[in-house]
Amino acid sequence: MRYITNAPESESDVRYLYHWEILRTALEKTRATWGPFELKAGPRMTENRQAFELKAGRSLTVMCLSTKPDMEATLLPVRIPVDKNLGGYCVFLIRAEDQPRFTPERIRSLDDLRKLTFGLGYGWIDVDILRHNRLQVVTGSSYEGLFTMLVNRRFDAFLRATVEVLEEVDQRKPTQPSLHIEENFLLYYPLPMYFWFPRTAEGERLQRRAREGMMAMIRDGSFDHIFRKHQQSKIDRLHLKRRKIFRIENPFLGPETPFADKRLWYDPLAGP
């Protein structure tokens, strides 16, 4: 059984190391019942291209992306949020000099956030979510280019998931020293990231095996163990428990979203 993922988008792109460890562990859990497997990276491509290739049955057999209505209709997900929706808690990557603009005295409500501009990638589902909630968005055509756009004052803040931002800043500090993680706020919206597979007979086999392995991980605690290994230091370094959370809705989630199973969702106040 061949699980072919996308390659990182750049040499410094480490966003998916955790996700592929979850998948590899799930596949190992099912080796006795499903047999051997291969998990390897395919070509490098953008998120939009990943979805296109998976739907067409070319290049990839699995991807890990946040849910979108068109993907729900055309692909097969494992409806277990891979990062327990920690990625739905977003911090603001800003220019260091602008931190005084982001204080609890200046930003008290969503209406105050609506006066700012947020950078996001073209085609990301987050763009539509923010605009639905009347937040101002400026889009960029490439992941790496968005960091440069922030430095060049094209928008006020680059919205970054808590699971990504620390490594992104650490890698870029030597060349972009003005990058700064805003210190007081979180913007939250439910945006579960799933493993996706082609809607074919083979895609269904790959999906069933991944789901079976992930459920086994949840039952035996290995899912939470890997989550803590990769994410707990980020949760602590970003002081998530003491930040003020602004919550917005995601109108693109369907009734099949597994909100009822609390094991699958991270809560900053409760921990993993």
Task: Provide an overview of this structure.
Strands 5, 6, 7, 8, 9, 10 and 12 form a seven-stranded mixed β-sheet that branches. The chain has a three-stranded antiparallel β-sheet with strand order 3-11-4. A two-stranded parallel sheet has the order 1-2. The protein starts with a strand and ends in a 25-residue tail after the last strand. The chain contains ten helices and twelve strands. Strand 6, helix 6 (125-132) and strand 7 form a beta-alpha-beta unit. With 272 residues, it is of the alpha/beta class.
Oligomer: single chain
Order of helices and strands: EHHEHEHEEHEHEHEHEEEHHE
Poorly predicted regions: none
Task: Determine the mean pLDDT.
Answer: 93
- Coarse shape: globular
Helical fraction equals: 25-40%
Got a strand count?
A: 12
Radius of gyration: 19 Å
Question: What is the first-to-last residue Cα distance?
Answer: 31 Å
Counted by DSSP, the helix tally is 10
Main sheet characteristics = 7 strands, mixed
Share of residues in strands: 15-25%
- Helices and strands: which structural class? alpha/beta
